[in-house]
Specification:
alpha/beta; 46% helix
Length: 287
């Protein structure tokens, strides 16, 4: 497969770019300007350096990965020679639609266009950006190197060439493809959100502490992480936006609890803010 461009050096973009380079793909990380993109590449270099220090990655493998990873501003020239573009911007159609439209205008006619959204209907993004029948949802899970699946949302009527291209990329990235119906929240976000919202309601009602509720799911059901810690890691503001979107579409069971709204209003949005249902260190570890 040819070079992969990843737009957005946030958590998803960085994790995907790191893994794509480790999988042997020539990878181009794109930002709003060159400095933005280069800062993302430097962070990935630091991650590889830490892996070397821990003996998980050889110096030779690190150097090969670094050679495969480049940075560029999001411009027409950044898409030259690229086979696929993964948009990895925040869950906001207002941010995603303009860049997807630009990518379609700047890229070649056979450029595979993917959106990394975890909850926004792909058909809506495609329609608003003039990409009806061309855009495929490619929801990877962070940290991408450790998670073995991609949730692929395919709008009705999407030609097989784009679906096959997305599946080919998934194979290169060593991910199992779970193809789901294109709908708000797809499947994964709905399941995780339902569990997370119920856990928040239990905290709100004083049934048990956040730590104890998470322990029931990790020690009782074998989940690798509890629903409240997961909510903190994802971001309580993102949890709230997804819940509000689903509730507004008529699905009352996703109505956000008052406690979730309060935490977001107060800025306690989870690990990125240093405080959510748990306290967090800047390195991403719980205090």
């Amino acid at each position: 497969m040819g070079p992969l461009a990843i737009l957005g050096p946030g958590a998803l973009g960085l994790s995907t770019a790191q893994w794509a380079a480790e999988c042997g793909l020539a990878t181009r990380l794109l930002g709003r300007d060159l400095e933005h993109a280069q800062a993302g590449v430097c962070e990935i270099h630091r991650r590889w350096q830490r892996s070397c220090a821990k003996g998980r990655l050889s110096l030779e493998a690190r150097d090969r990965c670094m050679e495969r990873l480049g940075a560029a501003p999001f411009t027409a020239s950044a898409l030259e020679g690229v086979s696929a573009l993964l948009e990895a911007l925040p869950e906001d159609a207002g941010l995603k639609v303009p860049v997807l439209a630009s990518a379609a205008l700047w890229g070649s006619s056979d450029l595979l266009l993917l959106t990394g959204t975890s909850s926004l209907p792909v058909s809506g993004l495609a329609r608003q950006s003039g990409l009806a029948g061309r855009l495929v949802g490619f929801h990877l899970f962070v940290p991408v190197p450790r998670m073995g699946v991609v949730e692929m949302a395919v709008p009705t009527g999407t030609p097989p060439v784009w679906v096959d291209g997305a599946r080919a990329l998934a194979r290169v990235l060593h991910k199992r493809v779970v193809q789901v119906r294109d709908q708000p929240g797809f499947a994964a976000a709905r399941m995780a959100l339902a569990l997370g919202l119920e856990a928040i309601r239990l905290v709100e009602a004083g049934v048990a502490s956040a730590e104890d509720l998470d322990a029931l799911m990790t020690l009782g059901y074998g989940h690798p992480i509890g629903p409240l810690e997961l909510s903190d890691r994802i971001g309580l503001d993102l949890r709230l936006r997804i819940a509000e979107g689903l509730a507004a579409s008529g699905e009352a069971r996703f109505q956000p609890p008052a406690l979730l709204r309060t935490k977001v209003t107060e800025g306690n949005t989870g690990s990125k803010a240093g405080q959510g249902f748990f306290g967090w260190e800047p390195q991403g570890n719980r205090t």
